[in-house]
Amino acid sequence: MPSITDESLLLKTALTRIRFLSCGEKLQLLKKLDNVTALALLSKKDLEMMFSRPIRAVWKTDMIRERAVRDVQLMEQYGITLTIYGDEEYPAFLKEIPQPPFALYCRGDISCLASPCLGIVGTRHATATGIKAAIASAKTCAEKKITIVSGLAAGIDGAAHKGALDAVLEDGATGKTAAVLGCGVDIIYPSAHKKLASAILRNGGCIVSEYPLEEKPRPYYFPERDRLISGLSGGVLCIEAPQKSGALITVDFALEQNRDVWFHPVSVSYAEQDMRDRHNENKDVFMLPAGVLKYIQEGAPVADDMQIVIDSILASKPAENTLF
C-alpha cells in the first residue's frame, strides 16, 4: 500500500508534477536523489547545469513535499498505484514511443496492458451504426484475450469499453479493457461514465493516466493522452471520425509509432456523408478527399474482416530496443 513514509514514492510522485523535464531527465534525478527534500533543495541553476540546457519554466520548491504527501494519501484512499519507466509493470509497448511518460498512475489491474492490446477510437458524436460497430468489434477482439484500449469519452470510446465488457472468455471471465484519461485517475471524465469506469475496474481492467492526481482535464491534455492510446496498443481501429478529430490525432500518432492502423467500414460511409454535408454548405468549393477518406486513398486498410485485425494484434510484439 502507498505510504507517506515511503521516501522513494514521495520523490516519484513529486517528479510527475514537473512538466518541463523529460522522462529521461526525471529518471536521472530519480537515480541521483534519495528523497523529495533533496529535490526541493535544487535550484533552477542546479537543474540547468545537470541537464546542460536552459530552464525557462517557473521552478517553485516551497510546497513540493507537502504536495507529494497529499498525492500519496490520495493514492492510498483510491487504491492507486504508480508505475515508473523501467519498472517491470510498465507497459512494454509504451517504452518504445517518442516521449514516453515518466510514470503511469493506475487504478485497477495494470497487468491487463501486458496482454495484446488494440486501441479503438472514434468520434464523441457517433451514429447508432457506429456505436453498434464499436461494441461488436471490441467484443469480438476481447473474446480473443485482446485488451481494448480507449479514452472513456462519450460515443465510440464508451461503446468500445462496453463491448469489451460484454465479451465472455472460455473460462467465464469478462473481456478486459483499459481507459486512458486526460486528467488524474481520481477524476472520472466524463462524469457520466462513472458507472462504466466502475465496471472496468470490477472486471479486471484498469484506468491509467500520466497526469498527477487532482489534475483536471485540459484541452491540450487530450492529444497527449491520444499518443498513449496508440502507444499502449499493437494497432488502432478507427470507427467514425470527422476531420480534425481526436480519433484521427490518435491515428497519426499510431503511424508515427509504427503501429498498424485500420478503418472500420462504417468510417467510410460516415466520412462520405461528412464530405457531402460540407459540400452542401459551400457548393462553390471543390471538396478533395480528407480525413478518413484521405488515409484510405493513401493506402490505409479498411477492416472488412476483424480476423485480420485479431491476427495482427496477437502477433504484435514490442521492440527490444527502448529509449532509456
Write up this protein.
- The radius of gyration is 21 Å and the shape is globular.
- The longest helix has 17 residues, at 265-281.
- It folds into two domains: 7-78; 110-315, Rossmann fold, CATH 3.40.50.450.
- Helix 9 (221-231) packs across helix 10 (246-256).
- The protein is α/β, with parallel strands linked by helices.
- Strand 5 (177-180), helix 8 and strand 6 (206-209) form a beta-alpha-beta unit.
- It starts with 6 loop residues before the first helix and ends in a 9-residue tail after the last helix.
- It is built from 13 helices and eight strands.
Q: How many individual domains?
A: 2
Taken as a percent bin, the fraction of beta residues is 5-15%
The total count of helices amounts to 13
Shape: globular
Based on helices, strands and strand pairing, what is the structural class? Answer: alpha/beta
Q: Please provide the ordered H/E string of secondary-structure elements.
A: HHHHHEEEHEHEHEHEHEHHH
- Cα-based radius of gyration, to the nearest Å: 21 Å
Mean pLDDT comes to 93
Which fold name is given in CATH as the topology of the largest domain? Rossmann fold
Strand order of the largest sheet: 1-2-6-5-4-3-7-8
Could you say what the CATH architecture of the largest domain is?
3-Layer(aba) Sandwich
Largest sheet: 8 strands, mixed
